[in-house]
Amino acid sequence: MTSSTTPSHGTDTAQSPVARFLKATEIDTRLLGMVGALLLIWLGFHIFGAVFKGQGSFLTPRNLWNLSVQTASIGIMACGMVLIIVTRHIDLSVGSVLGFTAMVMGITQARILPDIFGLGSPMIWIVTCLVGLVVGTAIGAFHGWLVAYRGIPAFIVTLGGLLVWRGAAFLLARGETISPLDSTFSLIGGGPYGSIGATGSWIVGLIACAFILWKLYSGRKNREHHGFPQRPVWAEVFLGVLGCGLVIGATMLVNAYPWPKGIVNQYAAAQGFEVPAEGLFISHGWAIPVLVLIAVGIAMTVLSTRTRFGRYVFAMGGNPDAAELSGINTKLMTVKIFALMGFLTGLSSIVASARLNSATNALGTLDELYVIAAAVIGGTSLAGGVGTIYGAIIGALVMQSLQTGMVLIGFDAALQNIVVGSVLVFAVWVDIIYRKRAK
Amino acid sequence: MSTNPNKGTPLVELRDISIAFGGIKAVDHVSVDLYPGEVVGLLGHNGAGKSTLIKCLSGAYRADSGEVWINGEKAEINNPRDARSYNIETIYQTLALADNLDAASNLFLGRELVGAGGFLDDIAMESETRKIMGRLNPNFRKFNVPVSALSGGQRQSVAIARAVYFNAKILIMDEPTAALGPHETQMVAELIQELKKQGLGIFLIEHDIHAVMDLCDRAVVMKNGQRVGTVNVGDVTDDDILGMIIMGKKPPQAY
């Protein structure tokens, strides 16, 4: 067993400064490409607005804050869809499951729980969320069982699910819309009250910065301990400054978006103080659904890269036979993966219905396509074995940016669909070229 | 008429194994045994049933009838996990590597090292992988790339490392040199000799008759799912074995 490897040293001199920089910092070029595309979209909409509408309204705290909230629901589900697609499956049912779960939760919190706990009890939102998560997980696990133990292709199982759960959502309340929802529950959807304010946002931001710095430091320690090659110090400093800079910048941004006047007055009246004549600047800060998305993103990244479960997911995607022969219980894994997708769909359903403050049987319609598109734009390969959580979240941000941007500059709905569809196909084509050249 | 030269309790006994796929008897009442420190070659045409028989031992298939005995005790092998618990390791013809994962991830697949809190200890796994690869294939350098980027020989060495790392007692090698050049083939041969010295029992599925004559102590020849016969390699010529493979002709030395 010889090897034809070229030595890994000695080629540095031949590389361009950019290549050397990317190598030293270990920044994923695909990630760089996605972020670049995102910034291009943002700038494009802003400039288009500035030129043709007299006012660029995309790159404003208000729009970007709203964008973050609107991305949350799709982003949460996209994290689960990555694992589904990595294992060469697909889930077409997430939109319908979201609608069904929202309807179950709507009925639970508006019609059942008030009789048990009394209207306004804090138990209502807690039990409702639990019910939503359990229902979502159970549906996902059931889909996974059909796929794994009954051998029905995931495409068919979830295509069936797409119809079944949408129909079931309608039947639950005979098509009625359930509104309003529990007031604490609806905070999870965001809005002025569903945000953590300036001080809270700074605390979250500083914790995030501390975490980034600690990660860089402990990673360095760990490599040193095992005698593995280190990144150059300047690259570590650069990554630390970049990471913390992004966190601080984003925190400043969400803090720069004030509550609307009406809400301020309402809040002042409730608290019993006078609003000064020049008005009162109360920051939104990070919205709760965005924090949920970030938490899901971190948890799913840890799960997919640092645990056996995640390793098995990727092994199953890379070579299902090898995974089976390595002693991995691939059938049970499939059930778990779909159950996890269901759990995240339940969570997303909480966010989506809370944001609307109502449960309708149409909630989540077409979400499956946006979720799959987000995962795929984020670099998840439909051939299996390849995909990242952060990619899917950026993918969700790209999809939502396109939609928001087109609404802002006044494209009509038909044109929006044409653009979104074209971008999806284009993004995958670019990705294919990238992969070929990377080989 | 020759007999099995081995005495005592066999490491592995496959007794009267049968398995059929859709009416075709892939393996038809075959019995084979293997002793510690012995290499038993499994020979036959493509489709003779060698790989299928051996997959009943590695847990990839379940036999329709027959028994597996390990160290004189009846063993229940229903899946690859069970086989691993009996210290049976397999190098598959297809290598069974997850192409998108790196060498360390493949080596430890299904048996990952975990650290505090149950999280993967990738650094420890890479470190162990560097150690064993340093022994098996000192030129191996590509630790941080997916195995899809490796050459055939490098991939093979990852598959072999996986089989020998976990203290296998019974090793199944399904055409381990099929994709290799002469130099690499020689290295596999040396490895087999070394493992044999350590007291492992090895089933070797092999088409190259010369490799069989060099490496194996005994050879089992199969044809159309049935066992033609077993010979002590030292008692026969390669023509005798070829006759068994091609015509199913049993020489007098066979039993």
UniProtKB/TrEMBL annotation, chain A:
GO terms for molecular function: transmembrane transporter activity. Pfam families: BPD_transp_2 (PF02653). Keywords: Cell inner membrane, Cell membrane, Membrane, Sugar transport, Transmembrane, Transmembrane helix, Transport. It comes from the Bacteria. The chain crosses the membrane at residues 31-52, 64-85, 92-112, 124-147, 154-173, 193-217, 237-259, 279-303, 337-357, 369-399, 406-430. GO terms for cellular component: plasma membrane. Part of the binding-protein-dependent transport system for D-xylose. Probably responsible for the translocation of the substrate across the membrane. This is Xylose transport system permease protein XylH.
Automatic annotation (TrEMBL), chain B:
It comes from the Bacteria. GO terms for cellular component: plasma membrane. One of its GO terms (molecular function) is ATP binding. InterPro entries: AAA+_ATPase, ABC_carbohydrate_import_ATPase, ABC_transporter-like_ATP-bd, P-loop_NTPase. PROSITE patterns: ABC_TRANSPORTER_2. SMART domains: AAA. It is a peripheral membrane protein. The keyword Secreted does not apply. It holds the Pfam family ABC_tran. Keywords: ATP-binding, Cell membrane, Membrane, Nucleotide-binding, Repeat, Sugar transport, Translocase, Transport. It is found in: Cell membrane. Residues 12-249 form the ABC transporter domain. The keyword Transport applies. This is Sugar ABC transporter ATP-binding protein.
